[in-house]
Structures are given as structure tokens and as C-alpha cells.
Design goal:
The protein has 285 residues and is mainly α. It is 78% helix and 0% strand. It has helices at 8-21, 29-35, 39-47, 53-84, 86-107, 116-130, 140-143, 148-166, 172-178, 182-191, 194-221, 223-241, 250-284.
Length: 285
């Protein structure tokens, strides 16, 4: 895992970007965290919180503050921009995912081709594709009523949503939609309806803790398989946001947007790598 630690300002800025983009339909907050090189530290800060309480607390606090600020500041402008220039913006996000591939392959320690590598990527793609077969939950009316049945289902739904929240390439809003819970969740948040929010939140918290612990262990023991499966998740998410083949003036704009997204993330990953190398040299001295 990446040992480089960002400064407070950079952590906040990365949280700002993740928070601002994770509300885009089909875009995963985990994917953006992976693209920005902060994903590993997020996972380790949650899963090993009690080993480094003070450091993990301040990192997660700064990142959460940045994420909340980003969601508040950029959700509406970004939504308006996507509505006005939908195809070029989505091509920009696709380019950003493509630009992160070299960084993920480096984390996976891919030095030469092995037949297992495409199998790992395909497994990730199949996992995301399988989400479309999730059974829909109980009716909206029964879900909004307090009861043992709805409590258990919401607890399970929160746990499943946590997996989407932690793993890159899987959109939480898309998963809630697949389970028939998106509208009810938005309504419960707006009305602060706690009989709905408490079991969903409890399942979410439990799922995040368990998923990050398993993920951190997998990243340490089996980095290549884990990162390549995550790459499969991210590639599968591209299918969700792919807006189709451009036409007219978009023939010129969309390739430029794709190239801009790729270049921006590629440069960020290069700067991350350079900063990590400099930090390692300073530590060695």
C-alpha cells in the first residue's frame, strides 16, 4: 500500500473533489478516490482506526469535511454542467478512468503479462454486472413502516450499500436504485425519518468496517489480484456512464474531453509518484 501521506490541505482538496463528483449518476466515489491516489489510505484509516487513532481521526475528519463541502458546493453546478454538456462531460470522466489504469497497474505490481491478470479484471467486471440481478426489496409503503421485517431488510440493504461505498467502480445511488430504495432513502433523509434511517445507517456502518478490513488484508496479501479486480469494477462502471457515439460538433469536443480527462489524471498520478519518491528519499536520509 502507498505509504505517502498527503498534507492537510491536499487531503481536504481530494475530499472536495470526491464529494463533488460522487453525486454524478454512475460515478463512484471510490473510483475517484482511487484515481486521486487517496483510496489506500482511506481503507487503512478505517480498518486500522484503533491502531493509529489520532492520525486516522484527523485524516478522516479532513477528508469528510472536504467531501461534505464538495457535495454542497459542486453538486448543483456540476449537475447543471452535465445537463448542458452531457456527452463531453461523461467522456471526460471516462478519460479520467482510463488515465488511472497505469497507476492501478503499478499498485498491482504488473511487470509482465500473466494469464491470471485478464481473469482478475474479468471477475471484477462480472461482479458489477451481476448487481443488475439483485432482487428488489419490499414495497415502498412497507419499507417506510416501522417493523421487524423492514428493519432486517434495511439492515441488509445498508450492508450491501456499504460494499458499493467502499469498492471503486460501484455507484451507491445505482445500487440503491436496483434494490428499489433510492426514492425512499431520499425521502427519509429529507423528512429525517429515523425508523428508516437508523437500520440503514447501522447496516452501512457495519458493512464499511468489515469491508475495509477485508479489503486492507487483501491488498497486503494479494495486491495484484485485488487491484486488478478493482480495475475491473472501474472499467465496468464506464458502461454505466457511456453516453453513446458522438454526432455533429461532439465529434470534435468529445475526443478532446476524453483526452483532457486522461491527461489530467495521468499528470496527477505522475505527481503522486514523484512526491512519494521524494518522501521516500527524505525518509532514507
Amino acid at each position: 500500500m502507498n505509504g505517502k501521506k498527503d498534507g492537510a490541505a491536499l487531503t481536504f482538496v481530494k475530499g472536495l473533489i470526491v464529494g463533488g463528483t460522487m453525486l454524478v449518476p454512475g460515478v463512484s466515489g471510490g473510483s475517484m478516490a482511487m484515481i486521486l491516489g487517496v483510496y489506500d489510505r482511506l481503507v487503512s484509516s478505517v480498518s486500522s482506526f484503533f491502531k493509529h487513532k489520532k492520525e486516522s481521526f484527523f485524516f478522516l475528519l479532513l477528508f469528510a469535511l472536504g467531501g461534505g463541502t464538495g457535495a454542497l458546493l459542486f453538486a448543483q453546478p456540476l449537475g447543471d454542467l452535465i445537463e448542458a454538456c452531457r456527452m463531453p462531460m461523461l467522456y471526460f470522466f471516462i478519460g479520467a478512468v482510463a488515465g488511472s489504469v497505469p497507476m492501478i497497474c503499478k499498485e498491482a505490481k504488473v511487470e509482465r503479462f500473466d494469464w491470471r491478470q485478464p481473469v482478475y479484471v474479468a471477475a471484477g467486471i462480472l461482479c458489477v454486472s451481476a448487481l443488475s440481478f439483485l432482487p428488489e426489496g419490499p414495497s415502498a409503503d412497507s419499507m417506510m413502516e416501522a417493523g421487524v421485517g423492514s428493519f432486517i431488510w434495511l439492515l441488509a440493504a445498508g450492508f450491501i450499500a456499504a460494499v458499493a461505498l467502499v469498492l471503486p467502480g460501484i455507484s451507491v445511488s445505482y445500487l440503491l436504485l436496483m434494490m428499489g430504495l433510492y426514492d425512499e432513502t431520499m425521502k427519509a433523509i429529507g423528512e429525517l425519518y429515523f425508523p428508516f434511517l437508523i437500520p440503514l445507517g447501522a447496516g452501512l456502518a457495519l458493512g464499511v468496517i468489515l469491508t475495509t478490513k477485508v479489503l486492507e488484508t487483501a491488498m497486503k496479501r494479494h495486491p495484484q489480484g485485488t487491484y486488478l479486480i478493482i480495475l475491473g469494477f472501474m472499467l465496468a462502471s464506464v458502461a454505466e456512464i457511456f453516453p453513446g457515439i458522438p454526432a455533429g460538433l461532439d465529434w470534435l469536443v468529445c475526443p478532446a474531453a476524453l483526452a483532457a480527462g486522461f491527461t489530467a489524471i495521468w499528470l496527477i498520478s505522475r505527481l503522486e509518484a514523484r512526491g512519494g519518491a521524494q518522501s521516500g528519499n527524505v525518509a532514507a536520509e
